[in-house]
Structure prediction request, 124 residues.
Amino acid sequence: MKQKIALVFEDDPHVLEIYEIVLEGMGFHVNSSMTSHDVLERVEKSRPDLIIMDNWIPDIGGVQATQLLKQHDTYNKIPVLYVSANTEVESLSKMARADAYLAKPFSLDELEGQILAVLEGSTI
Prediction:
């Protein structure tokens, strides 16, 4: 069975470490990027089963990076979990066309629950 791959766009190394611990505990191989300007190239290289996108990721930001993915014929079916400390995270995730969102700060259980939900195709 092929190991699932998660691609995480997060510029805070401490938060990135949390994602890595949770995702690896769920059986994922984790690739990450601290910028979003090359989002399509990173997805092409990683071929992820899941993308976690931070709102404030440098260069083009999470909304635009997610929109690029969702407009792409090949990548638009990859589930994207949109994460932000912004109080408007729900509307930002809708604008981005993400599959689900998670507000920071979050608990590890909330993170794992949203990952499972987005992989199953439910949005919360």
Q: What stands out?
A: The chain has five helices and five strands. Residues 50 and 78 are 6 Å apart (CA to CA). The helical segments are 13-25, 39-46, 62-71, 89-96, 108-120. The chain has one domain: 5-120.
